[in-house]
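User: I'm putting together a teaching handout on how sequence relates to shape, and I'd like one worked example. Could you take Pseudouridine synthase RsuA/RluA-like domain-containing protein from Eragrostis curvula, show the sequence you're using, and then write out its predicted structure as tokens right after it?

Assistant: Happy to. First the sequence, then the structure tokens directly below it.
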Amino acid sequence: MASAAAAAVGETPVVDEAAPPRALYSFGTPWPEFNAGLSYTDTFRCADADITTTLIGFYSVNYKSSAPVPGWIQRIRNGQITVDGEVVTDPETTIRVGSKLVYHRRPWQEPFAPHLLEVLYEDDDMVALNKPSGLQVLPKGLFQQRTVLAQLQLKDWKMASSCRSKRKDMQSHPVPVHRLGRGTSGLLLCAKTKIAKVRLASYFAEGAIDAGNKRDETEFGKERKISKFYRALATGILDDDEVVVTQPIGLVHYPGVAEGLYAACSSGKPAMSKVCVLERLAHQNQTLVQVEIHSGRPHQIRIHLAYIGHPLVGKSSAQSTTKLYLCLNDPLYGIGGHPKLDEPESLGTDGSFAYDGGYERPVQPVPGDCGYHLHAHWLVLCHPTTNKMVKITAPLPEILQTRGTPFCS
């Protein structure tokens, strides 16, 4: 547990790669060809009783980020919307205050995603998984079924009846207490009990608060309840052996992403990453790094490495949800931590729409695309019920393993 102690006092430990950890077991149910579809329910409430609202008017105004007007017309005419339990196919139907509206999104074939998960650590309070790249953690966008959460729900989590009777806060299945990007592989922590969920979530929240309060390197290594370490392959050669990045991260406009894209942003929320050089690969013009993060902002490591001029190395070909494209570095973030944008895209202003009525999928890369080398390698935490220090490690992909003696040793 030497590395755990080092993390607690602020040193920069590196896990020994000579004997990579082995999974306790693996589980997973193959995905069906199509998911079950979704239903979105609204109750119509009108602030001005003198204004008449039609079905197409309601959806085109309130959900314009979901589909253009012609797309919503198609959905209505296809019988995908009910009003007070009755299918309505006339877009100009007037809706009454208090009416229950339900849009039924038809089943669709989700993009490819792996389904097997390895269990690295498990006790009565929590379970740590080794998430493969390409698998989303929680439902969003095109991925509503092919997620880590779905596999946790499908598995039969057997527990001795004596233990279950003692633990009234047991959940029906474990739930993730933090997120990893779909393209990021590695360690994902899940809580089995309500108490563990609350306490583990508070550990991650404390890190975000600390990132806002501690703005210099000397404060970075203060003892905390959880420390997270990632392994990444960055473009270019980092000059300094250690770099602390404190660039705030916030939402910026990005075509095809209605809620915006997280990127380097002066008005964003505080974020802190400590980058440690492990190996400089001069012939490839790449640097293998370990990154410790205080906060857990979306895409934080990708943004911070790009911000300092060293975006993640891309895979020889990156698969988005809609196409295959070549990329030599991170497909989404460029120098400065800002999104790459070759040319502006419109959101269906020409009246075009996809087969399901929604907007055509963006040509530009989007946050859920894979195509970069980032792995949640290990963490050390204070156990949520025993208060003992626990260290968990996820085996490294071959490309992220050191070839010689790491600098941060």
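A couple of points you could highlight for students: Residues 2-30+111-400 form a domain with the Pseudouridine synthase fold (CATH 3.30.2350.10). The two ends are 15 Å apart (CA to CA).
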